[in-house]
Design goal:
alpha/beta; Adenylosuccinate Synthetase, Chain A, domain 1; Adenylosuccinate Synthetase, Chain A, domain 3; 2 domains; 10-stranded mixed sheet; binds guanosine-5'-diphosphate
Amino acid sequence: MGNLAVIGMDWGDEGKGKIIDLLMPRFDIVARYSGGANAGHTVSNGGKDYSLHSLPSGVFEESKRLLIGNGFLLALSAYGDKDGLLQEIERMNRVVSLHGRLYVADGAHVILPHHIEADSQGSGVGSTKRGIGPSAEAKANRTGVRVGDLIGIRDHDDYLALRERILRRYDVKDVLKTLYEQRAFLEKLIDGFGVKIVNASKFLNAAFREGSNVLFEGSQGTMLDIDHGTYPTVTSTNSTAGGIYTGLGIPPKQVDQVIGVAKATESRVGDGPFPTEDSYFNVYREGWNEFGATTRRPRRLGWRDGAQLKYAARLNGVDYIALTCLDRLGDVPDRLKICVGYKIDGRETDEWPTGFRDQTVAKPIYRDLDGWHGQDISSARDFNDLPKAAQNYVRELEKEADCYIGMISVGKERGDIIQV
Ligand code: GDP
């Protein structure tokens, strides 16, 4: 056993939710380490779908403790039509109690109204308008307000000091009113909903010592990481494995295993490089429900890129890949393709290019493979149950990714899985 990270290898929406759901019984704590309320995930329970943004997976398992880490950018309450943590908890409490099992890091930065307003004036490309970019900016330019700052307020001078911090850079009105409100939201979370504010590092290290097993829940995906993704069309935080250590305050040796989740065809929401994008897949968008969970924007679709997978596997130290949605390729009547490298300015390479310009002009080099059109593979439970063409597809991809594929998801349901 031990502690495990589940990380998306693409641009998010790889099906991490399903893999996490499957692994959940083995873990005591689920911790989110990066991102913010921009990353939506859907959990199904009792035939109903719940769209969550801030709460970690595992809400329906009453024995699990949930941690929102200091690397997470947190909206405490609703602003405009965007829910915050309070509303998510209120909604979930109607079906399952979160009382006493949700922990929030005192180092998490709070998304403030002026961050959301700056976002709605159109800051980032592909932004979800939830204030994530501006709040990350505030974190970096030292005008951010953390959960611990609000908790630490003892008297009026403390409010004034926080106001001063914000006004140093931003010309915003009603700062004191905002701070009173945010403090009141936090009090409601603590007194009304039993949320506990902790130092994430201390909390987790105590949990490790007791022998608890922790699942580190990645959000978005590797290719959206601010350092290693397709900069500048990226998110504001480190979604790769590196984000776990800073986003929770734990040492690298505590991550025992990393599973990388990748889809058999790729998708991306919003602008930015995507070499294998192909309008060939547009006819499948409705059937495959390829629309953003948070924004409902249609996702761009394309062929599986093996070279990019190799990059993501190396970057995260992926022990094995969980390949999802392999069943969908049975819809495709033609020969299948996997990308094995790129042509950039006439030069061939099998390495993912790390500069934006090269990522934008890279032309994929494909290997064609036989498909398995019309065959429903969703009942396969053993690798040998798969059609030979599907086995070959997985093996070829493994070779290109230079990483073992240890799990294959062949349908939406929890049990639709092959453990290789
Ligand atoms: P996440 O953000 O990475 O968790 O990804 P999403 O929540 O957007 O998941 C992608 C969607 O694909 C969800 O609706 C899943 O139910 C669905 N899904 C996951 N794995 C499979 C699979 O193997 N086959 C099919 N057909 N759908 C899947």
